[in-house]
Design brief:
With 339 residues, the chain is of the alpha/beta class. The strands form three sheets. Strands 3, 4, 5, 6, 7, 14 and 15 form a seven-stranded mixed beta sheet that branches. A six-stranded parallel beta sheet has the order 10-9-8-11-12-13, sandwiched between helices. A two-stranded antiparallel ribbon has the order 1-2. Helix 5 crosses helix 6. The radius of gyration is 21 Å and the shape is globular. It binds NADP nicotinamide-adenine-dinucleotide phosphate.
Protein backbone atom coordinates (compact mmCIF):
# COMPACT_ATOMS: atom_id res chain seq x y z
CA UNK A 1 0.00 0.00 0.00
CA UNK A 2 1.40 3.40 -0.98
CA UNK A 3 1.67 5.98 1.78
CA UNK A 4 2.33 9.69 1.75
CA UNK A 5 5.65 10.65 3.32
CA UNK A 6 5.57 14.28 4.46
CA UNK A 7 8.18 16.54 6.00
CA UNK A 8 6.70 19.10 8.35
CA UNK A 9 8.17 22.16 9.99
CA UNK A 10 8.42 20.99 13.59
CA UNK A 11 9.89 24.17 15.08
CA UNK A 12 11.38 27.43 13.88
CA UNK A 13 15.18 27.46 13.80
CA UNK A 14 17.33 29.93 15.68
CA UNK A 15 20.41 30.38 13.51
CA UNK A 16 21.24 27.47 11.21
CA UNK A 17 18.41 24.95 10.80
CA UNK A 18 18.97 21.51 12.36
CA UNK A 19 17.42 18.09 11.80
CA UNK A 20 15.20 18.63 14.85
CA UNK A 21 13.41 21.50 13.13
CA UNK A 22 11.86 18.98 10.73
CA UNK A 23 9.49 16.10 11.34
CA UNK A 24 8.93 13.12 9.06
CA UNK A 25 5.42 11.79 9.04
CA UNK A 26 3.77 9.05 7.05
CA UNK A 27 0.06 9.07 6.31
CA UNK A 28 -2.50 7.84 3.81
CA UNK A 29 -2.33 9.00 0.20
CA UNK A 30 -4.91 11.80 -0.13
CA UNK A 31 -8.01 11.19 -2.23
CA UNK A 32 -8.97 13.85 -4.81
CA UNK A 33 -12.47 15.33 -4.80
CA UNK A 34 -14.32 16.52 -7.91
CA UNK A 35 -12.22 19.14 -9.73
CA UNK A 36 -9.01 17.99 -8.05
CA UNK A 37 -5.90 16.07 -9.10
CA UNK A 38 -3.68 13.71 -7.18
CA UNK A 39 -0.01 14.45 -7.93
CA UNK A 40 2.84 12.03 -7.30
CA UNK A 41 6.06 13.93 -6.67
CA UNK A 42 9.00 12.94 -8.87
CA UNK A 43 11.42 15.73 -7.90
CA UNK A 44 11.41 18.32 -5.11
CA UNK A 45 13.43 21.51 -5.53
CA UNK A 46 15.49 22.66 -2.54
CA UNK A 47 16.18 26.40 -2.60
CA UNK A 48 17.75 28.93 -0.23
CA UNK A 49 14.50 30.96 0.06
CA UNK A 50 13.02 28.09 2.10
CA UNK A 51 15.13 29.24 5.05
CA UNK A 52 13.11 32.46 5.10
CA UNK A 53 9.83 30.52 5.09
CA UNK A 54 10.94 28.65 8.21
CA UNK A 55 11.05 31.97 10.13
CA UNK A 56 8.17 34.19 11.03
CA UNK A 57 10.15 37.42 10.56
CA UNK A 58 8.33 39.83 8.21
CA UNK A 59 9.10 39.01 4.58
CA UNK A 60 7.63 39.20 1.08
CA UNK A 61 5.94 35.80 1.53
CA UNK A 62 4.05 34.18 4.40
CA UNK A 63 6.00 31.67 6.52
CA UNK A 64 5.23 27.95 6.74
CA UNK A 65 3.19 27.39 9.90
CA UNK A 66 4.67 25.09 12.53
CA UNK A 67 3.19 21.62 11.95
CA UNK A 68 2.59 22.30 8.25
CA UNK A 69 4.25 20.54 5.30
CA UNK A 70 7.31 22.47 4.10
CA UNK A 71 6.53 24.25 0.83
CA UNK A 72 8.52 23.78 -2.35
CA UNK A 73 8.44 23.52 -6.12
CA UNK A 74 7.97 20.01 -7.50
CA UNK A 75 7.85 18.05 -10.71
CA UNK A 76 4.96 15.65 -10.47
CA UNK A 77 3.03 13.06 -12.42
CA UNK A 78 -0.77 13.24 -12.43
CA UNK A 79 -1.86 9.98 -10.78
CA UNK A 80 -5.60 10.64 -10.80
CA UNK A 81 -7.44 13.47 -12.47
CA UNK A 82 -10.93 14.64 -11.63
CA UNK A 83 -10.08 17.93 -13.36
CA UNK A 84 -11.09 18.58 -16.98
CA UNK A 85 -7.78 20.30 -17.83
CA UNK A 86 -5.39 17.46 -16.94
CA UNK A 87 -5.08 13.78 -17.74
CA UNK A 88 -3.62 10.90 -15.83
CA UNK A 89 0.08 10.62 -16.71
CA UNK A 90 0.58 14.35 -17.42
CA UNK A 91 3.90 15.74 -16.23
CA UNK A 92 3.50 19.03 -14.37
CA UNK A 93 5.43 21.70 -12.54
CA UNK A 94 3.67 22.26 -9.23
CA UNK A 95 4.18 23.64 -5.76
CA UNK A 96 3.48 20.34 -4.06
CA UNK A 97 5.86 20.77 -1.12
CA UNK A 98 8.01 18.28 0.78
CA UNK A 99 5.72 15.27 0.39
CA UNK A 100 5.39 12.31 -1.91
CA UNK A 101 1.78 13.03 -2.91
CA UNK A 102 -0.18 16.29 -3.10
CA UNK A 103 -3.67 17.36 -4.06
CA UNK A 104 -4.17 20.23 -6.48
CA UNK A 105 -7.12 22.12 -7.92
CA UNK A 106 -5.08 22.77 -11.05
CA UNK A 107 -4.32 26.42 -10.20
CA UNK A 108 -0.67 27.35 -10.72
CA UNK A 109 0.17 24.04 -12.42
CA UNK A 110 2.20 24.13 -15.63
CA UNK A 111 2.05 21.16 -17.96
CA UNK A 112 5.56 20.12 -19.03
CA UNK A 113 6.77 18.61 -22.28
CA UNK A 114 6.88 14.85 -21.61
CA UNK A 115 10.13 14.75 -23.62
CA UNK A 116 11.92 17.05 -21.13
CA UNK A 117 14.92 15.01 -20.05
CA UNK A 118 15.54 15.09 -17.16
CA UNK A 119 12.26 16.73 -16.08
CA UNK A 120 14.05 18.27 -13.08
CA UNK A 121 15.52 20.87 -15.46
CA UNK A 122 12.20 22.68 -15.04
CA UNK A 123 13.25 23.32 -11.43
CA UNK A 124 16.70 24.59 -12.42
CA UNK A 125 18.18 26.05 -15.55
CA UNK A 126 14.80 26.09 -17.35
CA UNK A 127 12.84 27.12 -14.27
CA UNK A 128 12.86 29.58 -11.38
CA UNK A 129 16.66 29.81 -10.82
CA UNK A 130 17.42 30.18 -14.54
CA UNK A 131 14.68 32.82 -14.85
CA UNK A 132 16.16 34.65 -11.85
CA UNK A 133 19.61 34.72 -13.46
CA UNK A 134 18.22 35.85 -16.82
CA UNK A 135 16.06 38.71 -15.56
CA UNK A 136 18.34 39.88 -12.77
CA UNK A 137 21.38 40.06 -15.00
CA UNK A 138 19.84 41.38 -18.21
CA UNK A 139 17.20 43.76 -16.82
CA UNK A 140 18.89 45.07 -13.68
CA UNK A 141 22.56 44.31 -14.39
CA UNK A 142 22.40 45.66 -17.97
CA UNK A 143 25.74 44.08 -18.94
CA UNK A 144 27.60 45.45 -21.93
CA UNK A 145 30.26 43.74 -24.03
CA UNK A 146 33.73 44.26 -22.58
CA UNK A 147 32.49 44.96 -19.04
CA UNK A 148 33.50 42.92 -15.99
CA UNK A 149 30.72 40.90 -14.35
CA UNK A 150 31.23 39.21 -10.97
CA UNK A 151 28.91 36.61 -9.45
CA UNK A 152 29.21 34.57 -6.26
CA UNK A 153 27.75 31.12 -5.59
CA UNK A 154 29.05 30.76 -9.13
CA UNK A 155 28.67 26.99 -9.48
CA UNK A 156 25.11 27.07 -8.15
CA UNK A 157 21.71 27.18 -9.80
CA UNK A 158 21.52 30.95 -10.29
CA UNK A 159 25.19 31.96 -10.38
CA UNK A 160 26.20 29.40 -13.01
CA UNK A 161 23.58 30.80 -15.40
CA UNK A 162 24.41 34.44 -14.63
CA UNK A 163 28.04 33.95 -15.59
CA UNK A 164 27.29 32.02 -18.76
CA UNK A 165 24.77 34.61 -20.00
CA UNK A 166 27.28 37.35 -19.24
CA UNK A 167 29.87 35.50 -21.36
CA UNK A 168 27.32 35.20 -24.19
CA UNK A 169 26.90 38.99 -23.98
CA UNK A 170 30.65 39.48 -24.43
CA UNK A 171 31.55 40.33 -20.84
CA UNK A 172 34.60 39.30 -18.87
CA UNK A 173 33.28 37.10 -16.06
CA UNK A 174 34.77 36.35 -12.65
CA UNK A 175 33.04 33.81 -10.46
CA UNK A 176 33.41 33.41 -6.72
CA UNK A 177 32.85 29.90 -5.36
CA UNK A 178 33.68 27.75 -2.37
CA UNK A 179 36.68 25.48 -2.94
CA UNK A 180 38.96 24.46 -5.80
CA UNK A 181 36.56 21.84 -7.22
CA UNK A 182 33.76 24.32 -7.72
CA UNK A 183 36.16 26.97 -9.05
CA UNK A 184 37.69 24.49 -11.52
CA UNK A 185 34.23 23.56 -12.81
CA UNK A 186 33.22 27.22 -13.19
CA UNK A 187 36.23 27.97 -15.40
CA UNK A 188 36.77 24.67 -17.22
CA UNK A 189 33.17 23.59 -17.82
CA UNK A 190 31.15 26.79 -17.70
CA UNK A 191 33.73 28.97 -19.47
CA UNK A 192 34.03 31.80 -16.92
CA UNK A 193 37.27 33.76 -17.39
CA UNK A 194 38.33 33.23 -13.81
CA UNK A 195 37.04 32.12 -10.41
CA UNK A 196 38.12 33.05 -6.89
CA UNK A 197 37.75 30.65 -3.96
CA UNK A 198 36.09 32.62 -1.16
CA UNK A 199 37.14 30.02 1.39
CA UNK A 200 40.83 30.35 0.49
CA UNK A 201 41.76 33.44 2.58
CA UNK A 202 42.82 36.88 1.30
CA UNK A 203 39.60 37.26 -0.68
CA UNK A 204 39.88 41.07 -1.14
CA UNK A 205 43.38 40.84 -2.61
CA UNK A 206 42.68 37.83 -4.81
CA UNK A 207 39.43 39.31 -6.10
CA UNK A 208 41.23 42.57 -6.91
CA UNK A 209 43.82 40.64 -8.91
CA UNK A 210 41.03 38.77 -10.73
CA UNK A 211 39.33 42.05 -11.69
CA UNK A 212 42.12 44.38 -12.87
CA UNK A 213 39.61 46.73 -14.55
CA UNK A 214 37.26 46.86 -11.56
CA UNK A 215 33.69 45.52 -11.51
CA UNK A 216 30.85 46.88 -13.67
CA UNK A 217 28.13 44.41 -12.66
CA UNK A 218 28.08 42.55 -9.37
CA UNK A 219 25.25 40.01 -9.21
CA UNK A 220 24.64 39.69 -5.47
CA UNK A 221 23.76 36.17 -4.30
CA UNK A 222 25.61 36.18 -1.01
CA UNK A 223 26.37 39.39 0.94
CA UNK A 224 28.71 39.12 3.94
CA UNK A 225 32.46 38.93 3.42
CA UNK A 226 32.02 38.57 -0.33
CA UNK A 227 30.27 41.92 -0.62
CA UNK A 228 32.94 43.51 1.59
CA UNK A 229 35.56 42.36 -0.93
CA UNK A 230 33.50 43.54 -3.92
CA UNK A 231 32.59 47.04 -2.70
CA UNK A 232 36.00 48.75 -3.14
CA UNK A 233 36.33 47.28 -6.63
CA UNK A 234 33.04 48.61 -8.02
CA UNK A 235 33.44 51.02 -10.93
CA UNK A 236 31.58 54.28 -11.38
CA UNK A 237 28.00 53.50 -12.52
CA UNK A 238 28.26 49.82 -11.56
CA UNK A 239 24.96 47.92 -11.32
CA UNK A 240 24.20 45.49 -8.51
CA UNK A 241 21.15 43.25 -8.91
CA UNK A 242 20.46 42.15 -5.32
CA UNK A 243 19.18 38.63 -5.77
CA UNK A 244 20.04 36.90 -2.50
CA UNK A 245 22.03 37.22 0.72
CA UNK A 246 22.64 33.61 1.64
CA UNK A 247 25.53 34.49 3.99
CA UNK A 248 22.93 36.18 6.23
CA UNK A 249 19.98 33.78 6.12
CA UNK A 250 20.92 32.19 9.45
CA UNK A 251 21.76 35.48 11.17
CA UNK A 252 20.12 36.07 14.52
CA UNK A 253 21.18 39.70 14.83
CA UNK A 254 23.22 42.37 13.12
CA UNK A 255 26.70 41.23 12.03
CA UNK A 256 29.52 42.04 14.47
CA UNK A 257 32.03 44.79 13.82
CA UNK A 258 31.80 48.50 13.11
CA UNK A 259 28.76 49.98 11.40
CA UNK A 260 29.66 50.17 7.70
CA UNK A 261 26.44 51.70 6.42
CA UNK A 262 28.12 55.09 5.93
CA UNK A 263 30.84 53.44 3.85
CA UNK A 264 28.25 51.81 1.63
CA UNK A 265 26.20 54.98 1.22
CA UNK A 266 29.30 57.01 0.36
CA UNK A 267 30.22 54.45 -2.31
CA UNK A 268 26.67 54.54 -3.72
CA UNK A 269 26.81 58.33 -3.90
CA UNK A 270 30.30 58.94 -5.19
CA UNK A 271 30.38 56.02 -7.62
CA UNK A 272 26.72 56.49 -8.57
CA UNK A 273 26.01 52.82 -7.96
CA UNK A 274 22.64 51.31 -8.76
CA UNK A 275 21.58 48.54 -6.35
CA UNK A 276 18.19 46.97 -6.94
CA UNK A 277 16.58 44.03 -5.21
CA UNK A 278 14.07 41.82 -6.98
CA UNK A 279 11.77 38.89 -6.29
CA UNK A 280 11.64 36.98 -9.50
CA UNK A 281 7.99 36.05 -10.08
CA UNK A 282 6.61 39.14 -8.30
CA UNK A 283 8.66 41.47 -10.48
CA UNK A 284 9.06 39.63 -13.78
CA UNK A 285 6.39 36.89 -13.83
CA UNK A 286 4.80 37.90 -17.16
CA UNK A 287 8.16 37.45 -18.91
CA UNK A 288 8.56 33.76 -18.07
CA UNK A 289 7.57 32.73 -21.63
CA UNK A 290 10.26 34.93 -23.16
CA UNK A 291 12.82 33.41 -20.81
CA UNK A 292 11.74 29.83 -21.61
CA UNK A 293 12.21 30.46 -25.31
CA UNK A 294 15.64 32.06 -24.96
CA UNK A 295 16.98 29.62 -22.37
CA UNK A 296 15.56 26.58 -24.18
CA UNK A 297 17.42 27.66 -27.32
CA UNK A 298 20.69 28.23 -25.43
CA UNK A 299 20.51 24.91 -23.58
CA UNK A 300 19.66 22.95 -26.75
CA UNK A 301 22.55 24.64 -28.57
CA UNK A 302 24.93 23.74 -25.71
CA UNK A 303 25.59 27.43 -25.02
CA UNK A 304 24.36 27.22 -21.45
CA UNK A 305 25.47 24.22 -19.41
CA UNK A 306 24.00 23.03 -16.13
CA UNK A 307 24.81 20.72 -13.30
CA UNK A 308 22.34 19.08 -10.93
CA UNK A 309 23.03 17.73 -7.48
CA UNK A 310 20.44 14.97 -7.09
CA UNK A 311 19.72 13.63 -3.60
CA UNK A 312 17.89 10.30 -3.48
CA UNK A 313 14.83 9.99 -1.22
CA UNK A 314 12.56 12.54 0.40
CA UNK A 315 13.71 11.50 3.87
CA UNK A 316 17.11 12.99 2.99
CA UNK A 317 15.69 16.43 2.13
CA UNK A 318 16.28 18.05 5.57
CA UNK A 319 20.00 17.15 5.63
CA UNK A 320 20.42 18.25 2.02
CA UNK A 321 18.70 21.55 2.75
CA UNK A 322 20.84 22.17 5.83
CA UNK A 323 23.89 21.49 3.62
CA UNK A 324 22.70 23.90 0.91
CA UNK A 325 23.05 26.81 3.31
CA UNK A 326 26.66 25.77 3.99
CA UNK A 327 27.71 25.16 0.38
CA UNK A 328 27.58 21.34 0.45
CA UNK A 329 25.60 21.23 -2.80
CA UNK A 330 27.41 21.27 -6.13
CA UNK A 331 24.90 22.48 -8.72
CA UNK A 332 21.11 22.83 -8.60
CA UNK A 333 19.93 20.84 -5.59
CA UNK A 334 16.93 18.56 -6.20
CA UNK A 335 15.56 15.52 -4.39
CA UNK A 336 14.39 12.49 -6.36
CA UNK A 337 11.22 11.54 -4.52
CA UNK A 338 9.97 8.78 -6.84
CA UNK A 339 10.71 7.39 -10.30
N1 LIG B 1 15.47 37.14 -5.66
C1 LIG B 1 14.96 36.03 -6.14
O1 LIG B 1 13.85 36.00 -6.67
C2 LIG B 1 15.76 34.76 -6.03
C3 LIG B 1 15.37 33.61 -6.73
C4 LIG B 1 16.20 32.46 -6.65
C5 LIG B 1 17.35 32.49 -5.86
N2 LIG B 1 17.65 33.63 -5.17
C6 LIG B 1 18.87 33.70 -4.35
O2 LIG B 1 19.98 33.41 -5.19
C7 LIG B 1 21.05 32.89 -4.40
C8 LIG B 1 21.58 31.61 -5.04
O3 LIG B 1 20.55 30.64 -5.01
P1 LIG B 1 20.74 29.22 -5.72
O4 LIG B 1 19.43 28.55 -5.72
O5 LIG B 1 21.47 29.41 -6.98
O6 LIG B 1 21.67 28.46 -4.67
P2 LIG B 1 23.03 27.65 -4.97
O7 LIG B 1 24.03 28.63 -5.48
O8 LIG B 1 22.71 26.48 -5.83
O9 LIG B 1 23.43 27.14 -3.54
C9 LIG B 1 23.76 28.03 -2.52
C10 LIG B 1 25.27 28.32 -2.52
O10 LIG B 1 25.52 29.52 -1.80
C11 LIG B 1 26.88 29.53 -1.44
N3 LIG B 1 27.05 30.04 -0.08
C12 LIG B 1 26.43 29.63 1.05
N4 LIG B 1 26.84 30.33 2.10
C13 LIG B 1 27.76 31.22 1.64
C14 LIG B 1 28.56 32.23 2.25
N5 LIG B 1 28.47 32.48 3.57
N6 LIG B 1 29.39 32.95 1.47
C15 LIG B 1 29.48 32.71 0.14
N7 LIG B 1 28.73 31.76 -0.50
C16 LIG B 1 27.90 31.03 0.25
C17 LIG B 1 27.38 28.07 -1.51
O11 LIG B 1 28.24 27.96 -2.63
P3 LIG B 1 29.84 28.06 -2.46
O12 LIG B 1 30.26 26.71 -1.92
O13 LIG B 1 30.30 28.33 -3.82
O14 LIG B 1 30.10 29.14 -1.48
C18 LIG B 1 26.10 27.29 -1.79
O15 LIG B 1 26.36 26.15 -2.56
C19 LIG B 1 20.49 32.71 -3.00
O16 LIG B 1 20.86 33.81 -2.21
C20 LIG B 1 18.98 32.71 -3.23
O17 LIG B 1 18.27 33.10 -2.08
C21 LIG B 1 16.87 34.74 -5.23
Amino acid sequence: MASNLKILLRSRPTGAPAAGNFQLESGPVPVPAAGQLLLRTLFLSLDPYMRGRMSDAPSYAAPVAVGEVMGGGTIARVETSLHPGFREGDLVLAYGGWQSYALSDGKGLTRLDPALDPPSLALGVLGMPGFTAYMGLLEIGQPKAGETVVVAAASGAVGSVVGQIARLKGCRVAGIAGGPRKCGYVVDELGFDTCVDHRGGDLPQRLARACPDGIDVYFENVGGAVFDAVLPLLNVRARIPVCGLIAHYNDTGLPPGPDRLGLLQRAILTKRLRMQGFIIFDDFGPRFGEFQQAMGDWVRAGKIKYREDVVEGLENAPAAFIGLLKGDNFGKLVVRVSQ
